Structure formats: structure tokens, C-alpha cells
Amino acid sequence: MAHPTQLGFQDAASPVMEELLHFHDHALMIVFLISTLVLYIIIAMVSTKLTNKYILDSQEIEIVWTILPAVILVLIALPSLRILYLMDEINDPHLTIKAMGHQWYWSYEYTDYENLGFDSYMVPTQDLAPGQFRLLETDHRMVIPMESPIRVLVSAEDVLHSWAVPSLGVKMDAVPGRLNQTAFIASRPGVFYGQCSEICGANHSFMPIVVEAVPLEHFENWSSLMLEDA
Description:
The protein is an alpha+beta fold and 230 residues long. The protein contains 4 helices and 10 strands; from the N terminus they run H-H-H-E-E-E-E-E-E-E-E-E-E-H. The strands form 2 sheets. It has a 5-stranded mixed sheet, with no helix packed on it. It has a 5-stranded mixed sheet with strand order 4-10-9-6-7, with helices on one face. The longest helix is centred in the N-terminal third of the chain and has 33 residues, at 15-47. The radius of gyration is 24 Å and the shape is elongated.
């Protein structure tokens, strides 16, 4: 999860998020190179009184500064489109979960099971256990098996919400009357935090998302206990 004074992204916990981090570094290096070149040109123009007469009217340099930006845009666009298609790819999910946004909590329904669903509310500050995070912890976590393709169907019951977990590279709008879907694979066990990312009213800041990735055997034990309690 994020920590104070952090400048970059959270550590990736899914293959798609790893691709996004690599693309971010790729694009940032291009920005650095362009910024360095522009800064050098500005300093050179301000600090010297000499004038190169061949630059004042040069077809060659105009060709270069027309073609070069086009090449740079292609170098950015191609990997960007590749990741865009990867994020939309949903192949044979092992588990489907329906996440429904409410004012101001989330409810989850495991559609592959007959009667497995629950509401997930934020834990109030006064009820937090030692080691839990304020405004991020919930009373019921969305438990998933690690290294398995998970499909999440996202919708809302009242107003616009957005289901987002940064370390998994997932963000999907929850629209009333519409069913959106996204998919991810948790590549390692852990607890991953997110929040509603669409302003949805007075308590928008108080509807966190907690995804807990566990080994398949532990997930089966958890699901059995939940079904027994239901």
C-alpha cells in the first residue's frame, strides 16, 4: 500500500500492474529526455549572442523536428495500446464476483456459489485493532484465490461509484443500471487496499475496498466457513 512521502506507484501485485509500471518508466524517460533537450536549447539561446545563419532558414531541421515527435508518439502509443488490450482481456475466469456500490459501502456476491455474499463497511476509527489502517480497513474483506483469473462485475444501486485497487491495476466505474466488468490475477498473497474513486456523496471517503489474496486451499476453507454461517 502507499506510504507517506511516496512519489511512485504502489508495488505491483498483478501482471497488468507490472506492465503499467514498465510503461510509466518508459514514458517518463522520454519526458526526461525531451525536457533536458528543451532546457539545453533555452539556456543556449539565452546565454549566447552568436547566431547560426544555417538554422534561421533550414529545411533539414524543420524535417527533423516534424518527424522526430511523430516517432516519439509512436514509441509511446504502441505499448500503451498493447496494455489497453491486455486490460480488456478476460479469458476463462476461475471466479466471478459481483461488486455493488451503495451509499456508502460495498456489497459482494460470489456468483459461482449458491448463497455467498456480504456487505463490506468501513471499520470506525474507535474500533480499529492494532496494525489496522484508518479509513482503509473493512469488516469483511473480499477474499480471492491467488494466481487465479478473477472477474469482477461492477455496478451501483444509487449513484456513480468506482471500484479501484491500485496495486492490482484495477479501476472500474460502477454505474446504476449498467454492469461493467474487469479482470485481474493476484500474483502473490497479501492484503490490497483501495477506495471508491468517484465522488459519490457526503461519505465518499468512507467506503474502502480490501482485497485479500490467499492460496487456493485457504480460499476453499474460507468459502466453506462462509457458506456454513449463511
